[in-house]
Amino acid sequence: MKYKIIYVFFLVLILSSCKNDNQKRVAENEKEVKKKELIFSTINKGWVFYDTPINDASEASVASWNEFRQFLAELAIKPKKTIGAFQQKSAAISKKAMALNNNIPYQYNKPQIKSRISTLITKVRMLDLFIHLDNIPDQKVIHLIAEINNELSSLQRQMDKIVEKGKIPVEEGESELKQMMDASRAIPNTPIDPNTPRVE
Protein backbone atom coordinates (compact mmCIF):
# COMPACT_ATOMS: atom_id res chain seq x y z
CA MET A 1 0.00 0.00 0.00
CA LYS A 2 2.80 2.32 0.95
CA TYR A 3 4.53 1.71 -2.40
CA LYS A 4 1.33 2.31 -4.35
CA ILE A 5 0.97 5.77 -2.83
CA ILE A 6 4.59 6.57 -3.71
CA TYR A 7 4.07 5.35 -7.30
CA VAL A 8 0.90 7.41 -7.68
CA PHE A 9 2.69 10.45 -6.23
CA PHE A 10 5.57 10.07 -8.73
CA LEU A 11 3.14 9.53 -11.59
CA VAL A 12 1.25 12.73 -10.72
CA LEU A 13 4.55 14.62 -10.36
CA ILE A 14 5.78 13.43 -13.78
CA LEU A 15 2.50 14.26 -15.51
CA SER A 16 2.37 17.73 -13.99
CA SER A 17 5.99 18.44 -14.99
CA CYS A 18 5.19 17.36 -18.59
CA LYS A 19 2.20 19.67 -18.59
CA ASN A 20 4.37 22.55 -17.37
CA ASP A 21 6.93 21.82 -20.10
CA ASN A 22 4.21 21.92 -22.75
CA GLN A 23 2.92 25.23 -21.41
CA LYS A 24 6.45 26.67 -21.43
CA ARG A 25 7.02 25.42 -24.96
CA VAL A 26 3.75 26.95 -26.19
CA ALA A 27 4.59 30.26 -24.48
CA GLU A 28 8.08 30.30 -26.04
CA ASN A 29 6.64 29.52 -29.48
CA GLU A 30 4.14 32.36 -29.15
CA LYS A 31 6.92 34.72 -28.08
CA GLU A 32 9.06 33.63 -31.06
CA VAL A 33 6.15 34.15 -33.49
CA LYS A 34 5.52 37.65 -32.12
CA LYS A 35 9.23 38.46 -32.41
CA LYS A 36 9.31 37.30 -36.05
CA GLU A 37 6.19 39.32 -36.84
CA LEU A 38 7.81 42.41 -35.32
CA ILE A 39 11.00 41.85 -37.34
CA PHE A 40 8.94 41.36 -40.52
CA SER A 41 6.96 44.53 -39.81
CA THR A 42 10.14 46.57 -39.22
CA ILE A 43 11.86 45.28 -42.36
CA ASN A 44 8.69 45.72 -44.42
CA LYS A 45 8.44 49.40 -43.40
CA GLY A 46 12.13 50.10 -44.01
CA TRP A 47 12.47 48.24 -47.34
CA VAL A 48 12.52 51.37 -49.51
CA PHE A 49 15.18 51.64 -52.21
CA TYR A 50 15.94 54.51 -54.59
CA ASP A 51 15.04 52.58 -57.73
CA THR A 52 14.72 55.50 -60.15
CA PRO A 53 17.57 57.44 -61.76
CA ILE A 54 18.26 60.74 -60.01
CA ASN A 55 19.85 62.64 -62.92
CA ASP A 56 20.12 62.73 -66.72
CA ALA A 57 23.39 60.79 -66.79
CA SER A 58 21.94 57.87 -64.86
CA GLU A 59 18.80 57.93 -67.03
CA ALA A 60 20.97 57.68 -70.13
CA SER A 61 23.00 54.87 -68.56
CA VAL A 62 19.81 52.96 -67.74
CA ALA A 63 19.05 52.99 -71.46
CA SER A 64 22.51 51.77 -72.48
CA TRP A 65 23.83 49.80 -69.47
CA ASN A 66 21.74 46.64 -69.22
CA GLU A 67 23.16 45.46 -65.86
CA PHE A 68 22.41 48.80 -64.19
CA ARG A 69 18.85 48.77 -65.55
CA GLN A 70 18.29 45.22 -64.24
CA PHE A 71 19.70 46.16 -60.84
CA LEU A 72 17.31 49.12 -60.52
CA ALA A 73 14.40 46.97 -61.72
CA GLU A 74 15.21 44.37 -59.05
CA LEU A 75 15.27 47.10 -56.38
CA ALA A 76 11.87 48.37 -57.54
CA ILE A 77 10.02 45.13 -56.76
CA LYS A 78 9.20 44.91 -53.05
CA PRO A 79 8.66 41.44 -51.59
CA LYS A 80 5.52 40.69 -49.59
CA LYS A 81 4.09 38.37 -46.96
CA THR A 82 7.09 36.60 -45.35
CA ILE A 83 10.67 37.00 -44.24
CA GLY A 84 11.51 34.24 -46.72
CA ALA A 85 10.38 36.51 -49.55
CA PHE A 86 12.71 39.24 -48.28
CA GLN A 87 15.54 36.70 -48.09
CA GLN A 88 14.94 35.61 -51.69
CA LYS A 89 14.75 39.23 -52.83
CA SER A 90 18.02 40.15 -51.09
CA ALA A 91 19.73 37.19 -52.77
CA ALA A 92 18.41 38.35 -56.16
CA ILE A 93 19.54 41.94 -55.51
CA SER A 94 22.98 40.66 -54.51
CA LYS A 95 23.24 38.69 -57.75
CA LYS A 96 22.26 41.75 -59.84
CA ALA A 97 24.71 43.94 -57.91
CA MET A 98 27.56 41.54 -58.66
CA ALA A 99 26.70 41.82 -62.37
CA LEU A 100 27.29 45.60 -62.27
CA ASN A 101 31.03 44.95 -62.71
CA ASN A 102 30.32 43.36 -66.10
CA ASN A 103 30.04 45.45 -69.25
CA ILE A 104 30.58 48.85 -67.64
CA PRO A 105 30.16 51.41 -70.44
CA TYR A 106 33.46 52.80 -71.72
CA GLN A 107 32.56 56.30 -70.57
CA TYR A 108 32.13 55.08 -66.96
CA ASN A 109 34.92 52.52 -66.90
CA LYS A 110 36.97 54.62 -64.50
CA PRO A 111 38.37 54.02 -60.99
CA GLN A 112 35.86 56.43 -59.41
CA ILE A 113 32.91 54.43 -60.75
CA LYS A 114 34.50 51.04 -60.06
CA SER A 115 35.19 51.94 -56.43
CA ARG A 116 31.60 53.08 -55.92
CA ILE A 117 30.29 49.90 -57.53
CA SER A 118 32.55 47.83 -55.23
CA THR A 119 31.24 49.67 -52.17
CA LEU A 120 27.66 49.21 -53.35
CA ILE A 121 28.25 45.48 -53.88
CA THR A 122 29.74 45.18 -50.39
CA LYS A 123 26.71 46.85 -48.78
CA VAL A 124 24.26 44.69 -50.77
CA ARG A 125 26.10 41.51 -49.82
CA MET A 126 26.10 42.56 -46.16
CA LEU A 127 22.33 43.05 -46.40
CA ASP A 128 22.00 39.57 -47.90
CA LEU A 129 24.13 38.14 -45.09
CA PHE A 130 22.24 39.83 -42.25
CA ILE A 131 18.79 38.96 -43.56
CA HIS A 132 19.74 35.28 -43.82
CA LEU A 133 20.82 35.00 -40.17
CA ASP A 134 18.67 32.96 -37.78
CA ASN A 135 18.38 35.95 -35.46
CA ILE A 136 17.81 38.78 -37.96
CA PRO A 137 19.09 42.15 -36.70
CA ASP A 138 16.24 44.20 -38.16
CA GLN A 139 17.71 47.59 -37.22
CA LYS A 140 21.00 46.68 -38.91
CA VAL A 141 19.08 45.62 -42.05
CA ILE A 142 17.23 48.97 -42.13
CA HIS A 143 20.53 50.83 -41.63
CA LEU A 144 22.10 48.89 -44.52
CA ILE A 145 19.19 49.76 -46.81
CA ALA A 146 19.84 53.45 -46.08
CA GLU A 147 23.56 52.94 -46.78
CA ILE A 148 22.78 51.18 -50.08
CA ASN A 149 20.61 54.13 -51.09
CA ASN A 150 23.46 56.53 -50.25
CA GLU A 151 25.97 54.50 -52.28
CA LEU A 152 23.55 54.29 -55.20
CA SER A 153 23.09 58.07 -55.14
CA SER A 154 26.85 58.56 -54.94
CA LEU A 155 27.35 56.30 -57.96
CA GLN A 156 24.78 58.22 -59.99
CA ARG A 157 26.23 61.61 -58.99
CA GLN A 158 29.70 60.42 -60.05
CA MET A 159 28.28 59.32 -63.40
CA ASP A 160 26.82 62.81 -63.79
CA LYS A 161 30.21 64.41 -62.98
CA ILE A 162 31.89 62.30 -65.64
CA VAL A 163 29.28 63.32 -68.21
CA GLU A 164 29.65 67.00 -67.28
CA LYS A 165 33.46 66.81 -67.50
CA GLY A 166 33.11 65.19 -70.91
CA LYS A 167 31.13 68.20 -72.12
CA ILE A 168 33.97 70.62 -71.38
CA PRO A 169 35.74 71.37 -74.68
CA VAL A 170 39.43 70.55 -74.99
CA GLU A 171 41.60 73.63 -75.46
CA GLU A 172 44.17 73.91 -78.20
CA GLY A 173 47.35 72.09 -77.20
CA GLU A 174 45.80 70.47 -74.11
CA SER A 175 46.07 66.93 -75.48
CA GLU A 176 49.78 67.43 -76.29
CA LEU A 177 50.35 68.81 -72.80
CA LYS A 178 48.69 65.74 -71.27
CA GLN A 179 50.94 63.50 -73.35
CA MET A 180 54.01 65.40 -72.20
CA MET A 181 52.95 65.08 -68.56
CA ASP A 182 52.38 61.32 -68.90
CA ALA A 183 55.11 59.67 -66.81
CA SER A 184 55.03 56.47 -68.85
CA ARG A 185 56.14 58.37 -71.97
CA ALA A 186 58.90 60.35 -70.25
CA ILE A 187 62.54 59.96 -71.25
CA PRO A 188 64.39 58.16 -68.46
CA ASN A 189 66.70 60.41 -66.47
CA THR A 190 69.87 58.32 -66.45
CA PRO A 191 73.37 59.80 -66.37
CA ILE A 192 75.37 59.42 -69.58
CA ASP A 193 78.58 57.46 -69.21
CA PRO A 194 81.38 59.18 -71.13
CA ASN A 195 83.06 55.84 -71.85
CA THR A 196 80.15 54.37 -73.81
CA PRO A 197 80.61 54.46 -77.55
CA ARG A 198 78.44 56.92 -79.43
CA VAL A 199 77.33 57.06 -83.01
CA GLU A 200 77.90 60.41 -84.63
Describe this structure in words.
The protein has 200 residues and is an all-alpha fold. The chain has a domain at 47-166. Helix content is 70%, strand content 0%. The chain contains seven helices and no strands. The protein has helices at residues 2-46, 56-64, 66-76, 83-98, 111-131, 138-167, 174-181. α1 packs parallel to α6 (138-167), α2 (56-64) packs across α3 and α3 (66-76) packs antiparallel against α4. The N and C termini lie far apart (130 Å).
Topology:
Blueprint: H1 2-46, H2 56-64, H3 66-76, H4 83-98, H5 111-131, H6 138-167, H7 174-181
Salient structural properties:
200 residues, single chain, elongated
Sum up the overall morphology in one term.
elongated
Strand residue percentage: under 5%
Helix content: over 70%
How far from one another are the termini?
Answer: 130 Å
Class from helix and strand fractions: mainly alpha
Q: Helical stretch count? A: 7
> Could you list the spans in which at least 5 consecutive residues all have pLDDT below 50?
none
SSE order, as H and E?
HHHHHHH
pLDDT averaged over residues = 77
Give the oligomeric state of the chains in this entry, treating copies of one chain as homo and distinct chains as hetero.
single chain
Q: State the major sheet.
A: none
> What is Rg?
31 Å
Beta-strand segment tally: 0
